[in-house]
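Please, does this match?
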Amino acid sequence: MMKKVYIIISAYNEEENIHVLYSSLQNELSAIKFTDYELVFVNDGSKDKTLDFLLELQKTDDKITIINQSKNFGHELAMTAGLNYVGNTNTMSDFSIIFMDADMQHPPKLAAEMITQWLNGKKLILTKRIENQDTGMKYRLMGNFYYWILNVLSDVRIPRNMPDFRLLDKKYVLWMNGLNETDRMFRGMLSLIGLRDAYILEFEAPKRNAGRSKYNFLNLYKLAIDSVIQFSIKPLRIATFMGFLGCFLSFLFLCTSIYISHIRHEPKTGFLTLLSVSTFFSSLTILFLGIIGEYIGRIHIEVKNRPLYFNEIIKNED
């Protein structure tokens, strides 16, 4: 049976990296003897010349397919577009896909190693980043806090320092395409399926070839909220527990007030205590309403059943 590898590359404002990445991939892939491959570039609504450069490359290489998103839908949906394209166009042959970014922090040499391991029988190949030359202490602390919150509150454990740079065999592609939720986080979705058969390759992420990272604190915050709510109802359970705890503490406070005022006959106004307790529980109420609102909001989006993205598939017709 014919084997084929689809390399799905998400790109957002990466005009300075496209040619470097393409040349590097060509060098690495030419050294591997396998049947066929296709470079699937997902242009995620870039505002620079990323699409123009991709169209130039496509004129000289019919192995390039461009998925041009109508706007910037985000990294997760860019990968979803590539995943859906492969799943919809290739269901008969033996194939795999590789997810990678266009900023050269996912080394093309490692992509070639993934393909070699796949040809040797590995079905799920993950990467583990042991060092990132492009991040400082601030980013690492944010990352540590993000994964701590995620794994404390989520029912699905998501390994740390394992980026979306990975290879999935055909069966994993079909399983992933069967997950229809709107809020998507590929690392969590794959953990939901199971990582028991995963083969792990370690690597050091070099500095970006050009440009700067698109992630900041707000992006990580939104990703953390989406990740927790997508894979867990623990926040709702915590809210319920805190509600019971609040009722219990209120009862104790009432009993203490009765004892001080009517048994010990101590004159106490209790104004500041009442104010602080009232403020505390009012804040908890607002917090828990916010948590419930997050879940209801996602239900609202899901039931609309809107398309996750809009794009056009551009192929070399020559």
